Amino acid sequence: MRSPLCRYSDDICALLPPQLFGSVAYYKLAAQYERSVIDTSLRYDKRFKSVHRYSIAGTDGELRLTVPVSRPEGAFMAGNLTWDRVTVSDHGRWWEVHMQALESAYSRTPYFEFYIDRFAPLFSPEHRPVTDLVLEADAIIRKILGIAPMCEKTGDDIHDYRRTDFSKIALSRPYSQIWSDRHGFMPSLSVLDLIFNLGPEAPLLLIND
Length: 209
Hints:
Blueprint: E1 8-16, H1 24-30, E2 33-38, E3 53-58, E4 61-66, E5 69-70, H2 75-78, E6 87-88, H3 94-106, H4 112-119, H5 130-145, E7 157-160, H6 180-183, H7 191-198, H8 202-208
Parallel strand pairs: 1-2, 1-7
Antiparallel strand pairs: 3-4, 5-6
Helix pairs in contact: 1-7
């Protein structure tokens, strides 16, 4: 059954950049397509921090959480490094830092306890391509939000969003955030913020925004 979130026919495929726990705007766009694919073979560019960095609403304002990554030796200098060859590092025990930050930020939200167990296995010292982590997180998020699973890229009509700066795509209306009374509405946070605050009502924002 076609999702009510979709606006484009299933012969159009959205080509998306890899983003770890992407922004609400990122998933609002993904929700409009019955067919979409994340390009994990996108050429590595250290300026694209969103591949391994995401923002949450911390107690002191926006908090950026970064998963440390390692590049294969020599690949970058050869000019042929792609994101699927960049691996997650265990530097700084990041998985513990991230889980503690999420708990501190969202433990008092209505749906944190309901959803956090779905995401918890992602936070581990396992060495793997960072794009594997992105895809695992994306699959969980899509299921929660009712967004169609990723498909294989085909020769159909492609809408290419790989160079889109999603931080510049504003939501037309705010939603309830746990720290809004202290910091006001923060529009460019990870979709985790939306999920923990709105739970099963989160897809309605994607439809109605």
